[in-house]
Design brief:
The complex is a heterodimer. The longest helix of chain A has 14 residues, at about 1-15. By secondary structure, chain A is mostly beta strands. The two termini of chain A are about 30 Å apart. Chain A has 2 domains: about 1-100, Immunoglobulins (Immunoglobulin-like); about 225-800, Maltoporin, Chain A, CATH 2.40.170. Chain A has a 22-stranded antiparallel β-barrel. A 5-stranded mixed sheet of chain A has the order 8-13-14-11-12. Chain A has a 4-stranded antiparallel sheet with strand order 3-2-5-6, covered by helices on one side. Chain A contains 7 helices and 45 strands. By secondary structure, chain B is mostly beta strands. In chain B, strand 4 (about 85-90) and strand 5 (about 100) form a beta hairpin. The longest helix of chain B is centred in the first third of the chain and has 19 residues, at about 1-20. The chains are: A mainly beta, B mainly beta. At the A-B interface, strand 25, strand 26, strand 27, helix 5 and strand 28 of A face helix 1, helix 2, strand 6, strand 9 and strand 10 of B.
């Protein structure tokens, strides 16, 4: 090959003497497989050393060429570069096709262009690998918080559950590289069991429009993905070390990828994270530490026409829960809420004591694809997940070290999917899904099961079609149907069973009514859930885009909504579900106006979501027990309406300075009662000034202000309780939201090249610069303690 | 290609099997759980020094955190000017025979404490007679001196993991395991 070049060079230079050299070569660089344009591809004329980069349209232009033969090298990140011999005579136009594979690490290709669209008619929000690396020590929920319209329901600051457009838990689906996470997401204090260091990019779709993933994502879908491994011989990896002052801990994560030109590849990744008690500005938050490990292994072969991959990951986390939030009853609640400081403040420690959670999540899967000529790409996936959740409470006697909750959830999932291109403008996606799930609640806890033993079967079928009507207009339509069968075995307290009239309504499902004061019932429930989507994308004036989407989503009630019956310790309340619930149905319309240009970009995304039979939990009465009074919260179905808008904008002030703004607002209403919905995120806005200089070690400086308004719309769930020691009746204020707050943070990073193949990125961050004391409405420990104080963080990333 | 055919067949057969399995009866019955820690019954027995009628105060909630309200029972009136030796007994009556929880509390005496709150005009004084391993009050036993004829309430509060020593409920902290209020008269 080299000889050929040299001879070519030699020959061409012979001809090059004294000619008219005013020819221009223009052209395009595209992907050989699917003709997508390749941006930032480097086109080099070897003879003249002229270089051009392709623009956003994949186009380039090189002028001043003579009438002769040139050797042109075309290179794109992680494609094998290709050389062409071109005889130039006059101006010519040429299209170069590269065998392009999604890039891995080191090089950042403009986002969104290289990754396939999940939904064509709703705004997709992405988080890049760079941002994930920057937040290596944080949780998935923390990272997602950077997207407008995404907030979180926190328990302390380590259990962070994402909220999309005001909805969370079972209404938000998390897809882990194509497999739906089954990690007992029904609990509001159960965070997603994913280590962000094990994933490469995240996409958030606010709504249920991506039917290929799920039909019941009434809130939205979080899609985490791994970058594809390049098809070439290479070995690369990275290590990130983070240290932080608040919590006096940090994390370390490392990964190594080996790939071969034959398409074979393997990747290994591991992380560990440890923090002790975090602190608020004025005191230590006792028992809030976290200890997390994760490990993943991936291997497979990727050919042009087919591929297969095996993957295994382990995620293990032990999370402390603020000791002061564990309460006996309403009298304790009054004391805790009225106290200015938490009732337990001990010295800093790394030890975790009750109450704490200990969760282990295993995920194993095999996926494969095959390109079938004239039909499309067939994808297959089988996944197994095991989620074991242990929760430890403050207990007495022999039970002290025993878990109060021990649930083991096993899930088998099968997916079969066909992606076909019917014509150059029409694409069709067809798929089938099947799932078998079994939950086992270990009786050795000595505490009645919060979630009963159950088996759940699910089958789904879907079709999504998109059609490009012309260069400006794209149309998308899809439908999906899911069938769910749930077979549970649950012990009910006889007193509850009778108080609900279940003894007459459900007398057929009683297996045995003779367990002392308990009844064993065998509910068998069927749910039929249709879902659909339709939308349009209209492109105009070059850089404007209008997206419209309507989606219908329907969700079967989760086990907690159906079966809850008893004291929920961490909330200090008694919770009751209802066996008679049917599915909730959402109709969401969202509109997005988007402009993407060099100096001013923005997106405005208003939406409205009408939810029929919305399942909500709310207080109904006070119940007396021997431990004092507890508030009873009952699930109930109603109709809800969520109305909101998310706004993003970015101005490039100069080449290096950028100003960014985000604003989100959501209003939730129970339309049956004409009352505000509980736990709706307050309006918030973020403003940032960013300085970035690629020439100066890619120096990045960002100063960000975050203002969270007070939530003024909330239901009044306060209640009164008699306190014997003072002989007074006190109001337990569990409703009033905390005041608005403003936080300032600083982020910075710079890149250093250590050697040809090794680079170092150093980051330094400060959050809550002024050490402001604040409480967040959506933090379940807000009644008892302030949120986090100032934190300094150092982040070192080595790519090799 | 062959593999894909096989997988497709395997996949479809899963649908068929799940569709048929709905009539299956569950062969394995899960073990019922009777909560060991639950306290269903608090009984305070007041024995007059030098003989007389025992007074028994009892609060009982047999369904624990279930919807039925507890029952509260006072066997009679206290006699003015009498000193009573009192013993508190905690039972879990969901088990058969009933489990004595007082023993557990006494074993972990430094992590528990009873508090006695006098409400209304009731003229009584209480004195701890049982103590933990550090010499701080535990309160499973106490003496009660009934003063002049009066009416009011007597509340017994058991705190788990309180701050010890303390000056009373207000600075004790911990979690409430028991709260039982009785209407009492002294004749």
């Amino acid at each position: 090959m080299r000889l050929f070049f040299i001879s070519l060079l030699f020959i061409s230079s012979q001809i090059a003497i004294s000619q008219n050299c005013e020819n221009t070569i223009t052209g395009k660089v595209i992907d050989q497989h699917d003709s997508t344009i390749l941006i930032d591809a480097k086109v080099t004329v070897l003879e003249t050393k002229q270089i051009a980069l392709t623009n956003f349209q994949g186009e380039f232009s090189i002028s001043g060429l003579c009438n002769r033969t040139y050797t042109i090298e075309v290179y794109h990140a992680f494609c094998d570069s290709k050389t062409y011999t071109i005889a130039v005579s006059g101006d010519i136009d040429k299209t170069f096709r590269l065998e392009h594979h999604l890039e891995e690490l080191n090089e950042i290709i403009l986002e969104g262009k290289s990754v396939e669209k999940k939904s064509n008619t709703t705004l997709e929000n992405k988080i890049s690998k760079e941002d994930i690396d920057r937040n290596s020590a944080k949780s998935l929920g923390d990272v997602l918080n950077n997207i407008s319209g995404v907030s979180s329901l926190n328990t302390g600051n380590t259990i962070v559950k994402p909220i999309i457009n005001g909805l969370h838990s079972s209404r938000v689906v998390v897809m882990n590289d194509g497999l739906r996470m089954e990690d007992q997401d029904w609990g509001s204090e159960h965070a997603p069991n994913i280590d962000i260091n094990a994933i490469d990019n995240i996409t958030v779709i606010k709504g249920a429009s991506a039917l290929q993933y799920s039909g019941n994502a009434i809130g939205g879908i979080i899609i985490t993905e791994n970058a594809k491994t390049p098809v070439k011989d290479s070995l690369y990896g990275k290590t990130i070390i983070t240290g932080a002052t608040n919590g006096r801990g940090g994390s370390i994560t490392s990964q190594l990828t080996k790939s071969f030109k034959s398409g074979w590849y393997g990747k290994v990744q591991g992380s560990t994270k440890r923090f002790g008690d975090f602190n608020a500005p004025d005191y230590n938050l006792s028992n809030t530490g976290v200890f997390e490990h994760s490990f993943s292994l991936r291997g497979g072969v990727n050919k042009f026409n087919s591929g297969i991959e095996a993957y295994y990951s382990l995620y293990k986390v032990k999370t402390g829960i603020l000791r002061a939030s564990h309460l006996g009853g309403a009298q304790d609640q009054v004391r805790a809420i009225n106290s200015q400081e938490p009732l337990y403040i001990e010295d800093f420690t790394y030890n975790l004591d009750a109450p704490y959670q200990d969760v282990t999540h295993h995920l194993a899967r095999i996926k494969a694809f095959k390109k079938l000529e004239n039909i499309g790409t067939l994808n297959f996936q089988y996944g197994f997940q095991q989620n074991n959740r242990l929760e430890f409470d403050v207990r007495r006697g022999d039970d002290k070290d025993k878990a109060s909750l021990d649930l083991k959830l096993n899930t088998h999932t099968l997916l079969l999917d066909l992606d076909s291109k019917i014509s150059s403008t029409t694409k069709l996606k067809l798929g089938l899904t099947g799932q078998y799930q079994t939950n086992f609640a270990d009786p050795s806890t000595g505490v009645r099961r919060l979630i009963p033993d159950y088996d759940k079967y699910n089958a789904g079928i879907y079709a999504v079609l998109d059609k490009k009507i012309n260069n400006q207009l794209l149309f998308e339509i899809g439908a999906r149907f899911d069938y769910t069968y749930l077979d549970a075995l649950k012990f009910y307290r006889t007193s509850f069973w009778e108080s609900r009239d279940y003894d007459t309504i459900f007398q057929d499902i009683v297996i045995d009514g003779d367990f002392g004061n308990q009844v064993l019932a065998n509910p068998k429930l069927n749910f039929y859930n249709p879902s659909a989507t339709a939308g349009l994308t209209y492109q105009f004036k070059d850089d404007y885009k209008l997206l419209f989407n309507y989606s219908l989503a329907s969700r079967a009630p989760n086990p907690s909504e159906l079966f809850s019956e008893g004291l929920h310790h961490s909330a200090s309340r008694i919770e009751y579900g209802d066996l008679q619930f049917n599915s909730e149905t959402a109709n969401k319309v969202s509109l997005t106006l988007q402009r993407e240009s060099n100096n001013f970009s923005f997106s405005i995304n208003p939406y409205v979501n009408f939810i029929k039979d919305f399942i909500v939990i709310e207080p109904v009465e006070i119940q007396q027990t021997i431990r004092g009074n507890f508030q009873v919260w009952e699930y109930r179905q109603t109709n809800a309406r969520l109305l909101g808008v998310d706004v993003n904008s970015a101005f490039n002030l100069t080449n290096n300075f950028q100003f960014k703004n985000q604003f989100s607002l959501v209003k939730g209403k129970d339309t049956a009662l004409d009352e505000a919905l509980i736990n709706m995120p307050a309006a918030s806005t973020k403003n940032a000034i960013i300085y970035n200089n690629k020439k100066l070690n890619n120096l990045y400086l960002k100063l960000e202000s975050e203002y969270v308004f007070r939530q003024n719309e909330y239901p009044d769930n306060n209640f009164e309780v008699f306190v014997a020691e003072t002989e007074t009746t006190e109001i337990v204020d569990i409703s009033t939201p905390p005041d608005a707050y403003h936080l300032l943070s600083f982020n910075s990073s710079a890149d250093f090249k250590l050697s040809n193949k090794t680079s170092l990125t150093v980051g330094f961050d400060v959050s809550n610069i002024f050490n402001t004391s604040y409480r967040n409405y959506l933090n379940r420990t807000r009644f008892y303690a302030d949120d986090l104080g100032r934190n300094f963080l150092i982040n070192l990333k080595i790519n090799y | 290609m062959k593999n894909f055919k096989f997988l497709t067949i395997a996949f479809l057969s899963l649908f068929l099997t799940t569709a048929c399995s709905s009539d299956d009866d569950n062969s394995s019955i899960p073990t019922p759980i009777n909560e060991e820690e639950i306290i269903t019954t608090v009984t305070v027995t007041l024995t007059p020094e030098g003989g007389g009628t025992e007074i028994i105060l009892q609060k009982q909630d047999l369904d624990g955190d279930g919807p039925n309200a507890p029952t509260v029972d006072v066997s009679g009136d206290l006699v003015a000017g009498t000193t009573y030796n009192a013993v508190i007994e905690l039972l879990n009556e969901t088990e058969n025979p009933a489990e004595n929880i007082t023993e557990e509390v006494e074993e972990e005496s430094d992590e528990h404490q009873f508090f006695y709150t006098i409400g209304g005009d009731l003229d009584v004084t209480t004195t701890y007679t049982s103590f933990d391993s550090n010499g701080n009050p535990l309160g499973t036993e106490f003496t009660l001196e009934a003063g002049a004829a009066s009416n009011g309430t007597l509340t017994f509060t058991l705190r788990h993991e309180p701050t010890k020593p303390n000056t009373g409920l207000s600075d004790a902290g911990g979690e409430t395991d028991i709260e039982a209020t009785f209407s009492v008269s002294i004749q």
